[in-house]
Specification:
single chain; 469 residues; alpha/beta; Aldehyde Dehydrogenase, Chain A, domain 1; Aldehyde Dehydrogenase, Chain A, domain 2; 6-stranded mixed β-sheet; 16 strands
Length: 469
């Protein structure tokens, strides 16, 4: 099997199909969205079972809450608004060109490539796929080799619900992924690590393929001096431990007032006990997805301890049946030299950094690469505005964690090293559309006044234009 040839043939087939129907009507697009909705609803149990098998333990409740629900919600939102998104939007022509008319006309890009990570394999496939289909595109979806059970299931189901020239799912290893990212798509969306994102962007650049990168980084959670402290700790623990921290926008580290360190530890331990009683054996606490990821996390923890950090597990025990279950662990006394403070953690380790003033916390965040998400817990409006105006992040949630990703009217994406571009809802529709500008000249117009040969009349018109320009 030659993955490069097979993928090229698949892309060619989708391009030919798109050429036959380059501007699908809304009833065509909505039928595709409803087919995707049926796939998810009719196979919800199979989906949860496959993801559970890949992780070793992924509770169905989390799959329903974090993958099935947002996928279906995105589809319903697109079905409710997609027809309106498609309509041309009139704009005013500039004064000197009246009575000409202008408009913005959305047009499908063509064939979209989507590269899916392992941590939320359903939602991070379906989310961008919804936007691509609402935009009238065809799509090729590359699944992660680290979720083989779900990837195989999704490929089989998509093959049942869609013709391959509409939506196709590709499985395979890193060689296949490399060949996939080098295809001349009309747009490529990649979700994953910053390191791999660099390779994807480099491969896409050979074809000048536009790329949306959804990466990650070290997303801080700031507990301000005016925060509801108990509530802040509870929501940070929640955001950190769903899917065992294997979330691109999970709080990566905490910044809190220096005198609240002991209070934070006590409150965090209580929150873990409340959410996950007997956490080592609790079937509602997810396992780490692979031996490779488990080893990476334990090495991060152990390297920090060896360099002087203090680790405090928020729970106890072990379960021989779940060898990749990692207990939530606070890390204090961390320094910038430690790998755990340089790399995105992507697991249930939580470094805690103390500050003296909120200005110090802001400076700490601003001095580091822009994160995908920022969380601020603070009740005082002036303090909130200060943090928002002096930091940069892909998205922000105030007085909670994670929930900005679930807002259909907000784009989701990173900034700088945490990504480029965005999608979700209308923003996603526009990402996967060319918003074509159209100028309609009026039958009676003054354009001829600027024709050559350039003489006195031209000079007078030019003087008028420059004066009013």
């Amino acid at each position: 099997m030659d993955p490069t040839r097979d993928l090229a043939d698949l892309l060619a087939g989708q391009r030919e199909a798109h050429a036959r129907d380059p501007l699908p009507a809304w009833h065509v697009r909505s039928a595709r969205l409803r087919a995707l909705e049926s796939l998810i609803r009719q196979h919800r149990g199979d989906i949860a079972e496959a993801i559970h098998a890949d992780f070793g333990c992924r509770p169905q409740q989390e799959t329903d809450l974090l993958e099935v629900f947002p996928s279906l919600s995105a589809i319903r939102h697109a079905l409710a608004h997609g027809r309106a998104w498609m309509k041309p939007r009139r704009r005013m022509a500039d004064l000197m060109f009246l009575p000409a008319r202008t408009e913005l006309r959305p047009q499908p890009l063509g064939v979209v490539g989507i590269i899916v990570p392992w941590n939320y394999p359903l939602f991070l496939a379906v989310g961008p796929l919804v936007d691509a289909l609402a935009g009238g595109n065809r799509a090729m979806v590359k699944m992660s080799e680290y979720t083989p059970a779900f990837s195989a299931l999704f490929a089989r189901l998509v093959g049942q619900y869609f013709p391959r020239e509409e939506v196709s799912v590709v499985t395979g290893d890193a060689e296949v992924a490399q060949a996939f990212s080098a295809l001349p798509f009309d747009h490529l969306l990649f979700t994953g690590s910053t390191a791999v994102g660099r390779h994807v962007m480099r491969a896409a650049s050979a074809n000048l393929t536009p790329v949306t990168l959804e990466l990650g980084g070290k997303s801080p959670a700031i507990i301000g001096p005016g925060a509801n402290f108990a509530r802040a700790v509870e929501r940070i623990v929640y955001g950190k431990l769903v899917n065992a921290g294997q979330t691109c926008i999970a709080p990566d580290y905490v910044l809190l007032p220096r005198n609240r360190m002991g209070d934070f530890t006590t409150a965090a331990r209580a929150a873990v006990a409340r959410f996950y009683p007997d956490i080592a054996r609790n079937s509602q606490y997810a396992s780490i997805v692979s031996d490779r990821q488990f080893k990476r996390l334990t090495e991060l923890r152990d390297e920090a301890i060896a360099a002087g950090a203090r680790a405090e597990a928020l729970g106890s025990g072990s379960d021989p049946a779940q060898p990749r279950r990692l207990l939530p662990t606070l890390l204090t006394g961390v320094t910038d030299a430690m790998a755990v403070m340089q790399e995105e953690i992507f697991g249930p380790l939580l470094p805690v950094v103390t500050y003296d003033t909120l200005d110090d916390a802001i400076a700490y965040v601003a001095a580091r690469p822009h994160p995908l998400a920022l969380y601020l817990f603070e009740q005082e409006a002036g303090a909130v505005d200060k943090v928002l105006s002096r930091t940069r992040a892909g998205g922000v949630t105030i007085n909670d964690t994670l929930y900005h990703i679930a807002q259909h009217h907000l784009p989701f994406g990173g900034v700088g090293p945490s990504g480029s571009g965005g999608y979700h809802g209308e923003a996603g529709f526009r990402t996967f559309s060319h918003i074509k500008p159209v100028f309609r000249q009026a039958r009676l117009n003054g354009a001829a006044l600027l024709n050559p040969p350039y003489g006195t009349r031209f000079a007078r018109m030019m003087a008028l234009l420059l004066r009013r320009g």
